Amino acid sequence: QVQLVESGGGLVQAGGSLRLSCAASRRINIDRLYTMGWYRQVPGQPRELVAQINRADTTEYADSVKDRFTISADNAKNIVYLQMDSLKPEDTALYSCKFSTTMGAFWGQGTQVTVSS
Known about the structure:
Largest sheet: 7 strands, mixed
Radius of gyration: 14 Å
Shape: globular
Helix content: under 10%
């Protein structure tokens, strides 16, 4: 079993930045790793994909965060990062990471990001 632990959330003013990190409890061989991604959810709304990166470092972003957020990964350490710049109040949500692997999908418990206007 793999556990994912997120960190880096918090309260920030609009226009500010935060960097989220997500680390796996044990090493996953890159050959078994499909994608690492970040999702967010606001109460009462479905969870949405924010950004994801695959083992070839190909990235994908939600339109709402393009040019503001950057996803990166340290495959050797199984850590994925989300650099969030120019934050907006509508970015407020619980952010969770997800690793999709040959062993199945693993989720973190989430870290809250709150952006004040």
